Structures are given as structure tokens and as C-alpha cells.
Hints:
By secondary structure, the chain is an all-alpha fold. The protein has helices at residues 3-38, 42-74, 79-113, 126-155. The longest helix is centred in the first third of the chain and has 36 residues, at 3-38.
Amino acid sequence: MSKPLRRLLLALELLCLALWTGSLFGFAFFTAPTVFSVVGAPSVAGKVTRLVLGNLDFLAVILAVLVLLSLLLRRAGTAWHRWLRVAAVAVMLGLTLYAHVGIVGRMNAIQARMDQPIEKYALSDPLRAEYDRYHARSRSVYGGVLLLGMALIAAAPWQNED
């Protein structure tokens, strides 16, 4: 593969990682807090943030596929370094899918069992406590995706492209 094509694929990889991690960063630090501060009811704000996050997860799958294709086609650097990056992106994708299907799916199921908005439940209520546990887990999992993505971007200047 020609050097210009490898560089183009590297640019695509970095752009996709930047979009993925940047969108998560923006969601976590700007979108979600703003929605919860502007919308009066936490149940409504939660619904808005779940919809936004669902769209971001869909985007993440597309971006992950593009990054993985770029990594596999470029075949730049040492084999262990390339496979380490492939593994990191695969973990990011796996965590995203786990959060979207496993965690957010369970949060939605819990809310479906509620007969009133979540903010009307006491923090000690078993349904609310279970929901809050899954919410905390989702923050940790998505945080791991964000940190891995930032690490991959930060490590890019040290890649051996020859």
C-alpha cells in the first residue's frame, strides 16, 4: 500500500476516533447537564438524554467499523502495536454495545415498571435504587470508552508508519 494511502487511512482513523470521543465528551460534560438544568422534570430530561445517547451509540458503531477497517488495511507499524489498537477499539465498541443494550436497556425496563415519573420515587425505593445503580454503571462504562478513545488519539503521534 502506498504511503499517501496509508496516511489517508490514518487521517480517517483519527477523525473517526475524534468524532467518537468528542461526541461522548460533549454529551457527558455539556449536553446531559444542560438538558437536566433546563428541563424541569428529570424523567423528561432522562428521556431526551437517552434518545441522544442512542443516536451517539449508533454513530459509534459506524465509526468503530471505519477505524477497524483503517487499522486492518493500513498494516502500519509493528504487528503488536497494530493489534493493541485493534483490541482497544474492539473493547470500546464492546463497552458501547454493552452500555446501550445491557445497561440502558435495563434502565428502560425499570422505568417501564414505574407507574409514575422517577423523580417521584424516594431514593430508597427499590426500583429507584436499582435504576440509580445502572445509571452509575453506565457512567463508568461510557467513561471507559471515552478514556480509551482519548488514549488512542494521544498515542497516534508515536505510531511507526513505515
